[in-house]
Amino acid sequence: MTSYRAPGWLRGQVRDGVAGVAAQGITAATSLLVQLVAAVSLGLSQYGVFAVLLAMLVGANALYIGFVCDSFTVFDRHEPRYRAALVSAALLVAALCVSGALLLALTFSGGGIRLAVPYALLVGCKLAAETVRRLFVVRVSFRALLLNDVGSLAVTASALPVLLAVSGEPTPEVLLGAMCCGAFAAVVLGLWQLPGSEWRGLRPGGAELPGLARFAVWRALQSGLRPLTLLAARLLVAALISTAAVGVLELARLVVAPVQVVINGSGSLLLGKLAARERGGDRRDPRLIGKAAWSLCGGTVVAGLLSAVLALLLAPPLFGRSVDAGAVFGWVGYLACWGAGLPYATELVTRRMSRAVFLPRLADSVVGLGVATTALALDAPVAVLPWALALGGGYAVYRLRTLVRSEPVPLAAATEPGSSHAR
After folding, report:
1. Residue pair 178/160 in contact by the 8 Å Cβ criterion
2. Cα–Cα distance, 252 to 319 (Å, whole number)
3. What CA dihedral angle connects 263, 264, 266 and 269, to 10 degrees?
4. Which superkingdom does the taxonomy of this entry point to (predicted)?
5. Whose CA is closest to 218, among 323, 88, 358, 40?
6. Which residues contact 395 (CB under 8 A, 6 or more apart)?
């Protein structure tokens, strides 16, 4: 009987794996579609404003994922006390993120309430949609995840021409509105696919919130540090040079944006698998994490360089303007450092060592922003920014690798608040 069941099980694993990778590709395509329309239709200054708002969205999403979604990956989301604490955490973090987005749109963009309202709605819908996506990942329901992401892409692509026709001209508000429609559709479709046990009868509660927060605060800071550093870098360029310079920088980043989405998606999938292994008591093997790091770094370099060469050739006819080659290759180096450290960081998170992950990442960001600020203040070209941000990456990778290859249960894990060993 076993000999007949194994091939079916294997085929199911392959189908799930293909669906998981395809879902990440669809997510990348949805983001890339809107960014391509923005790059082609908006002026550099408007595109710079749109890029800053998009960076804030990514930062808010990362903070929310780190605090809420990674918490219900590591903790038991069905245990009543943890479930109530997770609901409270989701409401609190979402409210803070939406409020921050509203404030940024009102003060930075100059678009007033007309831009701020759809942007705040987009942030709220995006956080809800990401919650649904992560539930599919935790449940290892990658085919349902793929259907959800396809639905989001279809609605976003359908909403774009409709809103453009109503508006009469391409504006950041139109693009944000189309993204909001896609995120809302993902929430509705996701709730329809998920079993009622995942989303019915949710009630907030605070009994386990302090214990949850001891893990989640460090995880959120660690997850949000990189996108918030990028947001700070964009605001720095806007302040020291102009929003048009941000637009130049973003055109170069757009070239390798799909690679970044795949890296982030790989981290999400890896977290779910490593967390399941940790709960099952499987033996840790740092060599496997090292192989994953080399594979992700090497794949990032190859894919990034291919994308860069193609973009340098195709950007003039596609965007109507050329891209800065120095900035493009700088973003490739930046992503390679990020990809190399991601498997090590993910492994440490499953050990509930979020604080230990945060400190090397913080040093990475401080060094990068410090070098970038100094260089731009000395009138260096804007292309220096991604190279500056990549400088701290080498130390971060080395430190994270050292932590993973240390004792199976390091002292930091045993004493960190929220660790099962501390209890």
Report:
1. yes
2. 11
3. 180
4. Bacteria
5. 358
6. 360, 363, 364, 367
Q: How many angstroms separate the CA atoms of 67 and 86, rounded?
A: 9
Contact 322, 381 (CB under 8 A): no
Residues composing the chain: 423
Using CA atoms, how far apart are residues 226 and 339, in angstroms rounded to an integer?
12
Side chain identity, residue 250: E
Q: Whole-angstrom Cα distance, residue 213 to residue 194?
A: 26
Output the CA–CA distances (angstroms, integers) from residue 340 to 50, 196, 294, 385, in the order listed. 29, 38, 6, 20
Question: What is the spatial distance between Cα 411 and Cα 62, in angstroms, rounded to a whole number?
Answer: 28
Match 């990401």 to its residue by tokens.
130
Number of neighbours of residue 12 by Cβ within 10 angstroms: 11
Residue 164 token pair: 């453009």
**Who's near 404: CB < 8 A, 6+ residues apart?**
286, 289, 344, 347, 348
pLDDT, one tens digit per residue, over 187-244 is 999 899 888 878 777 778 777 788 788 888 877 887 788 888 888 999 899 888 888 8
Residue position matching structure tokens 């007033």: 112
CA distance from start to end of the chain: 43
Q: Is the pLDDT of residue 405 over 50?
A: yes
Distances (CA, A) of 24 to 29, 229, 273: 9, 23, 16
pLDDT at residue 327 is higher than 90: no
- What angle (nearest 5°) sits at the alpha carbon of residue 391, between those of residues 386 and 392? 120
Q: Which amino acid is at 187?
A: V
Distance of CA 246 to the CA centre of its chain: 20
How far is residue 131's CA from residue 128's CA, in Å, rounded to a whole number? 5
